[in-house]
Amino acid sequence: MSEDVSKDLPPAAQRALAEAEERRKNAKALDLAPELGGRNGPEPVRYGDWEKKGIAIDF
């Protein structure tokens, strides 16, 4: 976020943005096991793509 935009925010919002940036800097990558039989391509939850080959899927 650019400095001139953050100056327009209340102090609490500026503090929250600074804390979030610090957490992102200190975050470690998760060492997760690979998914077996999962979808190829973008993550459907993140991108809102709830279909596969034109068929809507439900969990």
Polypeptide structure, described:
It is a single chain. This protein is mainly alpha-helical and 59 residues long. 41% of the residues lie in helices and 7% in strands. Strands 1-2 form a two-stranded antiparallel ribbon. Strand 1 (51-52) and strand 2 (55-56) form a beta hairpin. The radius of gyration is 19 Å and the shape is elongated.
Main pleated sheet: 2 strands, antiparallel
Straight-line distance between termini? 36 Å
By oligomeric state, this entry counts as single chain
The coarse silhouette is: elongated
Q: What is the spatial order of strands in the main beta sheet?
A: 1-2
H-E string? HHHEE
| Strand residue content | 5-15%
Low-confidence stretches: none
What's the structural blueprint in terms of helices and strands?
Elements: H1 3-6, H2 11-26, H3 44-47, E1 51-52, E2 55-56
Antiparallel strand pairs: 1-2
Short descriptors:
mainly alpha; 59 residues; elongated; 2 strands
Entry summary:
The protein is mainly alpha-helical. The protein has helices at 3-6, 11-26, 44-47; strands at residues 51-52, 55-56. The chain starts with a helix and ends with a strand.
